[in-house]
């Protein structure tokens, strides 16, 4: 199994956090990815999106996946959710091999995926009806999930009457209503403004605290990754490969104020150095830009 690394020296500085990671490691493995590979055959030729990616996630762990654009993050979660086929390797959820979508895995995407012709309640009831709940039971359960995401007053509203953040809360309720073991989230807050995004991150941590769920969350945003996760899977690009699994030593419960703590900043810096390693030659080999749209102007800098 691929190694987990730590922010330098945090184990000595925070024995409580180190002990928490020790306990997390003792938990059962919910998701195991072994030597996963994905090659797309497209009109542009063969694209190796993922190569030899291995990692595991423990029960109720919050794992973020981060890496440069195009490194295969979406492909990875789509395969894990069973929405995309793999070329090689194996994916196990609770020890069972995954080969297609299943009720043990839920997914929330960046784009708003609610059915526009259904109310909030009907959207959340959708999967419950499919799983042969009676109408009465489906409605009762849907109400509970809607209350959990704080939208009881809006259960009869339609998606176009909701803000972006509210829509994503409904999408989370809809995914959780099917009681999956793992929730995959692909940049779910990527389209939201910074303030709403921060609120949604706190909401999500609250939900995670209250629901028996293991979360794998894709993001571009380093602060979001450090704020939310226990560990961060860093992928390299071209092809998408395992770079590091980094333990985030920021104590829980998390709050926005921690974003200025030295531990938070050290974790952020470490992840940043993995994604954007400093140029070995000091960047001198960078080519001069071919195009200059305006002459240099000392007043326009
Ligand atoms: N259906 C497809 N057919 C061909 N190539 C694909 C397909 N889907 C993804 N790819 C390629 O696989 C690689 C990984 O894409 P993917 O969307 O998984 O990256 P990503 O890390 O999610 O990117 P971003 O950060 O921009 O969301 C890219 O080179 C992409 O062009
Ligand atoms: Mg993506």
Bound molecules: adenosine-5'-triphosphate, magnesium ion
Level-1 CATH class name of the largest domain = Alpha Beta
Terminal residue distance: 49 Å
Helix percentage = 25-40%
List the helices and strands and how they pair.
Blueprint lengths: L3 E3 L3 H4 L1 H12 L2 E14 L2 E14 L3 E5 L6 H9 L6 E6 L2 E2 L7 E4 L11 H11 L4 H14 L15 H14 L4 E5 L7 H17 L3 E5 L3 H7 L2 E6 L4 E7 L14 H14 L26
Parallel strand pairs: 1-11, 4-9, 4-10, 7-8, 8-9
Antiparallel strand pairs: 2-3, 2-5, 5-6, 10-11
Helix pairs in contact: 4-5, 4-6, 5-6, 8-9
The site of adenosine-5'-triphosphate has 11 residues, from strand 2, strand 3 and helix 3.
Short description:
The chain has 301 residues and is of the alpha/beta class.
